[in-house]
Amino acid sequence: MSSRFVPPAGPPRMLALAQLTNSIGDGAYYVCSALYFTRIIGLSPTQVGLGLTLGWAVGSFAGVPLGHLADRRGPRGTAVLLALATGAAVALFLMVRSFVPFLVAACLYTSCQCGLGAARQALLAGLVEATARTRTRAYLQATTNAGIAIGAALGGAALQFDTRGAYLAAFAVDAVSFLASALVLLRLPAVPGAPPAPHGEPALAVLRDKPYAAISALNMIMLLYMPMLSLILPLWIVQWTVAPRWMVGALLVLNTVAVVLFQVRVARRVTGLASATRLVRYAGLFLLAACAVFALSTVGTSSWLAGLVLVVGAGLQVVGEMLLASGSWEISFGLAPPDKHGQYQGFFGTGVSVARMLGPLLLTALIITWGAPGWLVLGGLFVLAAVAMTPAVRWAERTRQPAEMPLTSGR
To answer: How many domains does the chain have?
Structure first.
């Protein structure tokens, strides 16, 4: 039995439970981490930013080999080990007192997170039929947002107390959440590892797959909506508009609730690669419209009018986000060889790391410094990347063997 909010019984439901468990901890971490690192450890904001940037850079490179490890050794065992390692990395943050140990912990944390994401996607591919993977991934995304919202409330409580003990408790919740997630993953069926690559074939074949690299790069451009929502909009609201500051939290709540309620419904529109690329094109148009509306939020002197414009923009943005997610999941699974989902998902997932690493610097210069024209440039980038996705996917399809294309029947 399944519904809009609860995935079907069996592996999809267990995967969602594992995702919910550690996303609660992640929510607490995201809310508290910056203040913990600066106020409790005593690092400067520059050191925190540099450490996390270098950490995500290392993590983006680690995702592919760790995904390959999941392919070879089996994704369930690899995911369990990486979940435990991520929890250990979070616990390590509690012991650092200076920049170098912080940097080491950040690199370990981001590498394990990226590898865990790749292993989980390989596990999903091994346990769920190809035609149900995108819908299952939508359930996981909705579950993740719900868990982060719960964790953010816990982190908010820690911020309210603003004591060392409160911050340590929030980090402890995150570390324990990964342990609990590992225990849930152990209840899933094991998926056997793939045999070694034939002689003469590269072990990390994804690094030579030019069409897939192009698709991943286009998806990375579109993932710039992530820092746009979490960093740029708050700065924009405070520095460029007369909207009330509480709009920052309101827009984040709007985004979270919309994804929880509607991501699965949007994913049902995907039936194959053709429909997936169509949704990506629509996503580009919605994100362009959102950027244009955000640019208009500086017009006038009414705080309530500015707030209303921002809500409209955020609504358009979350529709684009859900369309992009549904289309990109289908594309990333559908174009990956059946025995290499781990390394392919690890490579595709580098877009998230790069968006987190470079997006804040790029978008701050583009939008916060330049203003409304910067929003329009960003919207144009979204549309160009979305339109280019269709020929890139067709190029990738032409390079695949028929046995590697189980989803083309949806065209």
So the answer is: 2
